[in-house]
Amino acid sequence: MQIKSFSARTLDANALKSFAHPLRLRIYELLDEHGPSTATRLAGLLGQNTGATSYHLRELAKHGMIEVVAGMGRGKEKYWRIVPGGHSFADARPTDPETAAALEYLLDDLVRSRGTELSRWRRESATAPDEWVQAGVYGRRSLRLTPEETARMRDQVFEVLERYRTLSDGREHDREQGRGGPLGHVVVHFDVLPVGTGDEG
């Protein structure tokens, strides 16, 4: 079954193998959470030297994951940001062992990240403003569906998420113009897990 892509790009084998690196994943997470940043600031946050963060930023940029922000920085200083539109992993199971191992690493990190973000919000929600607590939700549903119904549901939910991703991507211009109200870094977890259809053994 072909999966419809709702991301700007799907990572090819070379991008998967490059992205499957612990420091690059942490750099990407920091840019996602905090917005544009320099190699020097990222080095301080990660306890690395600027040479290391600069190298990994260039590697991420080489594969279209991040880009330099035009108009920010002084002299040779560069601000990096995530490329708008997001990315997705290939829907096919890689036959190349190195690519398959990279994909497994990225998926395991995705699961780790989900747990970290859920635990963080569980702690922060005790002191977050009421408007944000009321806007958030923990959600889980258990359904009995066919593969076709499952795919149709998935695509419909992603269509909604895509509308809000486009809205979010346009916010940088609003911020530059001084428009808009308070913004939060809102993380949406959406997983469709047909549990019990595979062999765990």
What labels would you give this structure?
single chain; 201 residues; mainly alpha; Arc Repressor Mutant, subunit A; 2 domains; two-stranded parallel sheet; two-stranded antiparallel sheet; globular
Order of strands in the sheet with most strands:
1-4
The tally of helices reads: 8
CATH architecture of the largest domain: Orthogonal Bundle
Shape: globular
Describe this entry's structure for a reader.
The protein is mainly α and 201 residues long. It has 2 domains: 8-112, Orthogonal Bundle (Arc Repressor Mutant, subunit A), CATH 1.10.10.10; 130-193. Helices cover 52% and strands 5% of the residues. It has 8 helices and 4 strands; from the N terminus they run E-H-H-H-H-E-E-E-H-H-H-H. The chain has helices at residues 13-19, 22-34, 39-46, 50-62, 97-124, 130-135, 147-169, 171-176, and strands at residues 9-10, 66-68, 80-82, 87-88. The strands form 2 sheets. The chain has a two-stranded parallel ribbon with strand order 1-4. Helix 1 (13-19) packs across helix 5 and helix 3 (39-46) packs across helix 4. It is globular and about 60 Å long. The protein starts with 8 loop residues before the first strand and ends in a 25-residue tail after the last helix. The model has no long low-confidence stretch (mean pLDDT 89).
